[in-house]
Structure formats: C-alpha cells, structure tokens
C-alpha cells in the first residue's frame, strides 16, 4: 500500500447545527476508509477565516464566505488515506450547489449543500495547500514528524476509533 496522504476537511457551520446531516457526512468519511488523524470542533475566528481564504480576498463572495464561516462552530478533521486529497474532493462533489445537485446528487455537496457559499464541506486542493491549511487550524500538529513517526503505524497497524471524539488512534495492544 502506498504512503498515506493528509488533507484538511472542514464541516461547515450549517451542518454542525444539524446533527442528522453531520452524522450522514461522518458516515461517508468512515465508509470511505479515511482515518481521522485529528479532530476538533470550534468556532473559526475572523482572523483565521480571512487568512484561510486569502486567495479569494477580491472575489464578490469573500465577505459572505468569511461571515458564514465565522457564524458558528465548524468541525475540523485531518484525514488520512492513499489519495486523500482527490478522494475527499470527489466525495464532496462540485463547489456550486446547482452543479452538485444536478450533476452529482449523491455527493456530500449534492445532498447537503444549501447555496454556493453554504456548500457543506471544505477539502484541500493540493498537498501544498493541505500542509498550509492543517497548520492554520492545528498549529500544534507537527506535519513532518507525523510522516516520520506515525504514517507507517496508521497505514499498517490496527487502529482504535473513538466515536465521541471522532478520531482514530494507533492501538498499542
Ligand atoms: N456577482 C455575482 C453575484 C452572485 N452570483 C451567484 O448568484 C447566486 C445567488 O446569489 P445569492 O442569492 O446571493 O446566494 P444566497 O442564496 O444568498 O446564498 P449564499 O450567499 O450562501 O451563496 C449564487 O449562485 C452566486 O454564486 C454570481 O454569480 N455573481
Ligand atoms: N460563486 C460563489 N458564490 C458564493 N460562494 C462561493 C462561490 N464560489 C465559491 N464560494 C465559496 O468559497 C469557498 C471556496 O471556494 P473555492 O476554493 O473556489 O471552492 P472549493 O471549496 O470547492 O475549493 C467555497 O467552498 C464556497 O463556500
Ligand atoms: Mg478551494
């Protein structure tokens, strides 16, 4: 089996307010064999949202995007899998709500997206952005150290899963 790849997933605020939708998306993650390396729930701050979406600063939707992303708690997951970045984005489906609903109704955004802004989830779009985005929300996470010391264990060993914390860990027994 090839090296695991890491990606940052965000479950956006309107989903956290709807437990049934949240469960549906968590089930997709687990059924698709992602390992959840880190997991936290918190309200994203204005500074974090502005920095995170810096590339969209001059777009017409930037203000509503940052306003929405700071409107309540989000779930933040570091997901691991071979091809995690591409696989997670294909499970999410197209960015725009009509496109996802008409062309990919079975994807996460097709099922749970409410608008182009409130499109349910985020996923990193390249290994470089994954590294940057993980650093924004998990500053305590040492990315290089994880690949040195944890990647092989996550790939090869038995893992435990905590449904309360929605996170996997290496089973040392
Ligand atoms: N200059 C603009 C403004 C809006 N739109 C598009 O117009 C649609 C409707 O915009 P709006 O009614 O503001 O969306 P909302 O339903 O309010 O949803 P949200 O703000 O969460 O996207 C969206 O698909 C948006 O991408 C666009 O293409 N160009
Ligand atoms: N045309 C749009 N109208 C409103 N919001 C948008 C639009 N395009 C993108 N967004 C919001 O900005 C986020 C970031 O956009 P982008 O990076 O292009 O998409 P993705 O999240 O698929 O990588 C989207 O997930 C969505 O919440
Ligand atoms: Mg993007």
TrEMBL record:
Where along the chain is the active site annotated?
122 (pros-phosphohistidine intermediate)
Q: Where is the Nucleoside diphosphate kinase-like domain?
A: 4-145
Q: Which reaction does it catalyse?
A: a 2'-deoxyribonucleoside 5'-diphosphate + ATP = a 2'-deoxyribonucleoside 5'-triphosphate + ADP
Q: Does the keyword Magnesium apply?
A: yes
* Pfam hit, one: NDK
Q: Which positions bind ATP?
A: 12, 61, 89, 95, 109, 119
- Obligatory cofactor(s): Mg(2+)
Name used for this protein in its record:
Nucleoside diphosphate kinase
Q: Which gene encodes it?
A: 109545316
Q: Name one GO molecular function term.
A: nucleoside diphosphate kinase activity
């Amino acid at each position: 089996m090839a090296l695991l790849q890491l990606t940052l997933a965000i479950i956006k605020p309107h989903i956290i307010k709807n437990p049934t939708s949240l469960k549906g998306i968590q089930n997709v993650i687990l059924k698709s064999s992602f390992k959840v390396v880190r997991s936290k729930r918190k309200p994203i701050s204005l500074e974090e949202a502005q920095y995170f979406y810096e590339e969209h600063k001059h777009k017409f939707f930037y203000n509503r995007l940052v306003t929405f992303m700071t409107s309540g708690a989000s779930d933040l997951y570091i997901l691991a899998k071979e091809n995690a970045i591409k696989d997670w984005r294909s499970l999410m489906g197209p960015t725009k709500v009509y496109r996802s609903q008409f062309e990919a109704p079975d994807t996460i955004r097709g099922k749970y997206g409410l608008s182009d802004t409130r499109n349910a989830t985020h996923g990193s779009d390249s290994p470089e952005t994954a590294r940057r985005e993980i650093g924004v929300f998990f500053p305590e996470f040492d990315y290089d150290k994880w690949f040195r010391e944890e990647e092989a264990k996550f790939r090869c060993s038995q893992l435990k899963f905590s449904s309360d914390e929605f996170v996997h860990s290496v089973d040392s027994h």
